């Protein structure tokens, strides 16, 4: 399908990082696709890590996997930090401020279910139920591959 970016997101020549993966569980017999063996799409420029408002992507710690003689590596993502900004919309710069939300909560020293629950109770009315949050994924919009400049 494509290559992995430093952010861990799928990158393709056609769409950069602008696609999502969905999974479907089936017992149907399916043919396997070949692993991507094209040129590396990610140039390890670290713009994804540098532009993340909560610094969720490491520039030093990496994950690596080999599949069919192709090595894929990407930066470690602190998913709790990422969720604080994106999933829960608690960091203004991650998108909520763009719809007029005043929610902008600093990361706690430890992200726990209790700190998330307490923070979610502080969402301003523009983000209250029915839960609406506008999120800007800085790791994707700042990726040169997403601009199709590859």
Task: Using brief descriptors, characterize the structure shown.
two-stranded antiparallel ribbon; alpha+beta; about 150 residues; 4 strands; 4 helices; 2 domains; globular
Layout: helices, strands, pairs:
Blueprint: E1 3-4, E2 10-11, H1 47-51, E3 57-67, E4 70-77, H2 79-85, H3 113-120, H4 138-141
Antiparallel strand pairs: 1-2, 3-4
Structural overview:
This protein has 150 residues and is an alpha+beta fold. The chain has two domains: 3-77 and 138-147, no CATH class; 81-127, no CATH class. Helix content is 16%, strand content 15%. The protein is built from four helices and four strands, in the order E-E-H-E-E-H-H-H. The chain has helices spanning 47-51, 79-85, 113-120, 138-141; strands spanning 3-4, 10-11, 57-67, 70-77. Strands 1-2 form a two-stranded antiparallel sheet. Strand 3 (57-67) and strand 4 form a beta hairpin. It is globular and about 50 Å long. The mean pLDDT is 88.
């Amino acid at each position: 399908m494509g290559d992995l970016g430093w952010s861990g997101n799928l990158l393709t020549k056609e769409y950069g990082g602008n696609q999502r993966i969905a999974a479907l569980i089936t017992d149907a017999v399916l043919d396997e696709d070949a692993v991507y063996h094209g040129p590396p799409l990610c140039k390890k420029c670290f713009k994804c890590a540098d532009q993340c408002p909560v610094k969720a992507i490491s520039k030093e710690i990496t994950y690596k996997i080999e599949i069919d003689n192709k090595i894929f590596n990407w930066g470690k993502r602190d998913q709790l930090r990422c969720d604080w900004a994106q999933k829960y919309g608690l960091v203004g710069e991650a998108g909520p401020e763009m719809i007029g939300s005043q929610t902008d909560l600093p990361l706690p020293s430890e992200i726990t279910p209790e700190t998330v629950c307490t923070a979610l109770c502080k969402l301003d009315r523009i983000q209250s139920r029915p839960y609406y949050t506008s999120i800007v994924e800085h790791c994707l919009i700042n990726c040169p591959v997403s601009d199709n400049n590859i």
